[in-house]
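in:
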């Protein structure tokens, strides 16, 4: 039974931009259920960010996730820097295929780095409204190589996950404190290089600690109507980014 549902999206909004580097990310949370823990009933939030190594590096101290309730900022969650890892694919080099290995140090074009940030154990007091609590992080700047946006390096970047209320059999909303449900997580790392002209299939390999059902769907961009889409996509509809 799904009690708290996490939906992960990548959106964009308009900000002044200096250079491009952000490619995607995710926000997830873990409910601490160990009865021996002094943090029983609290949440630990994890945020992963993926950057284009040809752009600027990301913060290696901490980042802040904002919590929103019907448009009101009700809480801030500090996530400390944990690690950064080059996740660029390995390249085979031979006389026939003299490919240079992609990496963030010597050949950054096409290389990708994963940054991980994590909070301490925190409380979320109350219960999400029907419209959900929304956890967001934003910054400039998007990857300038995107082909389905006009001036992508002028489009800011917002990462969002949402938590919705659970109703017990009587219809009463169950408070989020103490916690009782973790978010789904992605077990598969992003695929950063795809060969043009060849079939491609990818699974996020998501799982849920409580074995709740999971579904995937594209969401409308957060600031749709403000961003400049390339007129090339069919019907100028919001493309999958």
């Amino acid at each position: 039974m799904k009690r708290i549902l996490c939906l992960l999206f990548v959106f964009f909004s308009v900000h002044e931009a200096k250079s491009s580097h952000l490619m995607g990310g995710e926000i997830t949370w873990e409910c601490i259920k160990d009865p021996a823990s002094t943090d029983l009933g609290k949440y630990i939030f994890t945020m992963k960010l993926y950057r284009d190594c040809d752009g600027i590096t990301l913060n290696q101290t901490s980042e802040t996730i904002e919590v929103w309730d019907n448009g009101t900022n009700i809480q801030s969650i500090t996530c400390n820097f944990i690690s950064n890892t080059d996740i660029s694919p390995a390249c085979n080099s031979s006389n026939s295929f003299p490919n240079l290995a992609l990496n963030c140090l010597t050949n950054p074009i096409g290389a990708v780095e994963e940054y991980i940030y994590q909070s301490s154990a925190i409380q979320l007091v109350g219960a999400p409204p029907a419209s959900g609590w929304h956890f967001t992080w934003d910054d400039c700047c998007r990857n300038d190589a995107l082909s389905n946006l006009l001036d992508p390096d002028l489009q800011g970047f917002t990462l969002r996950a949402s938590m919705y209320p659970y109703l017990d059999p009587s219809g009463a909303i169950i408070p989020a404190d103490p916690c009782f449900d973790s978010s789904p997580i992605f077990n598969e790392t992003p695929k950063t290089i795809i060969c043009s002209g060849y079939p491609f299939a990818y699974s996020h390999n998501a799982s849920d600690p409580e074995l709740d059902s999971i579904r995937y769907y594209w969401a409308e961009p957060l600031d749709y109507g403000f961003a400049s889409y390339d007129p090339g996509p069919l019907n100028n509809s919001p493309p999958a980014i």
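note: The beta strands are 7-11, 22-31, 43-52, 62-69, 72-86, 112-119, 133-139, 157-163, 185-186, 206-207.
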